[in-house]
Design goal:
The chain is mainly α. The protein contains 5 helices and no strands. The longest helix has 29 residues, at 5-33.
């Protein structure tokens, strides 16, 4: 499978959006308790595995998924409300 950066970025944003949809309460609580990465570790690992399966090792070796998580979840959800960590 050829590496297509735009396609990888779309998938990564969709995965991050799905995490918000299914884990919104966990995300908000983790911001309040300042333990986002610990609270989301299992979900993020599942996303990494699925991303690698769907896009290949070359795409998985980039930081595309992590950037999507930061942009979509941390910045997107975190900037809507006031949390102690922001």
């Amino acid at each position: 499978m050829a590496f297509d950066r735009k396609r990888c970025e779309r998938l990564a944003r969709a995965m991050a959006s799905d995490s918000i949809a299914y884990m919104n309460d966990t995300i908000k609580k983790s911001f309040e308790e300042d333990n986002f990465f610990e609270a989301m570790a299992d979900n993020m690992e599942e996303n990494r595995k699925a991303f690698k399966e769907r896009q290949g090792a070359e795409a998985a070796a980039t930081n595309i998924l992590e950037c999507a998580i930061a942009d979509t979840i941390v910045h997107g959800v975190g900037s809507k409300d006031k949390y102690p960590i922001f």
